[in-house]
Amino acid sequence: MSNAQVVVHRDGDLLAAAAAARLVTRMVDAQAARGSASVVLTGGRTGTAVLEHLNRNGARDAVDWSRVDLFWGDERFLPSGHPERNETQARAALLDHVPVDPARVHVMEPSDGKFGDDPEAAASAYADVLASLARPEDHGDVPTFDVCLLGVGEEGHVASVFPASPAVYEKERTVVAVRNCPKPPPTRVSLTLSSVRRAQEVWLMTTGEAKAAAVAMALTGTGEVQLPAAGATGRRRTLWLLDTAAASKVPALFKPPLA
Ligand SMILES: O=C1O[C@H](COP(=O)(O)O)[C@@H](O)[C@H](O)[C@H]1O
């Protein structure tokens, strides 16, 4: 994790506002360079707050939303429209308010979707979606995302890859079904860490003292099996966006002045 960058904000609200502004810039730059942008969304409180801030930010209209591919890092395997689905929360926070191209909003199937209550089939279908969008220059079955947004759990999970779970050992598949999650709901679909690592930039965003130990451990050499967040790295950049409480156990070496 030595190449990780840490940015500490005064509180969670400022973190979400600053991350939203940062995301606008990143998407506009990607569109200027390549014509389109691709972002992996995360669920959770911080991830949703970032989308809410993005929706309120006047600069959101600098993005050509019809040329954005949106993916999810994980999904809670629940019926379509369920309030706990990451998709439902992202739509309410942002996607229902901007002119996205529905064909470029790549959702993970719900538990009442075309595969029914079969998370393995939903995971396999999402792997097919990723593979269909990968270009030769991506060198594999996953597109090179511009940004992958991630929350971080108290025990160090990212997406729905939990410590010492089968998902953290997965080396072949790009997307997996996750069962018996320690955090409800118990059944989920998730990108694997190797898929997360296809992103140019990975932004790990979290707040609160309850996350402080996991953040510090991830930054100081704990392995990804014990702490999946440690294995969430970007090809070009790994950025930790923290509030002061989540950063409270980070060694001074990593801590820049307060942003
Ligand atoms: O369940 C989940 O939790 C994590 C972290 O959520 P937070 O509320 O503690 O920020 C999130 O990253 C993940 O996408 C989600 O499914």
Automatic annotation (TrEMBL):
Hydrolysis of 6-phosphogluconolactone to 6-phosphogluconate. The keyword Protein biosynthesis does not apply. This is 6-phosphogluconolactonase. Residues 11-240 form the Glucosamine/galactosamine-6-phosphate isomerase domain. Its EC number is 3.1.1.31. Keywords: Hydrolase. Signal peptide: none annotated. Pathway: Carbohydrate degradation; pentose phosphate pathway; D-ribulose 5-phosphate from D-glucose 6-phosphate (oxidative stage): step 2/3. InterPro entries: 6-phosphogluconolactonase_DevB (IPR005900), 6PGL (IPR039104), Glc/Gal-6P_isomerase (IPR006148), NagB/RpiA_transferase-like (IPR037171). It is an enzyme of class 3 (hydrolase). Pfam families: Glucosamine_iso (PF01182). GO terms for molecular function: 6-phosphogluconolactonase activity. It catalyses: 6-phospho-D-glucono-1,5-lactone + H2O = 6-phospho-D-gluconate + H(+). PANTHER family: 6-PHOSPHOGLUCONOLACTONASE (PTHR11054:SF0). Belongs to the glucosamine/galactosamine-6-phosphate isomerase family. 6-phosphogluconolactonase subfamily. One of its GO terms (biological process) is carbohydrate metabolic process.
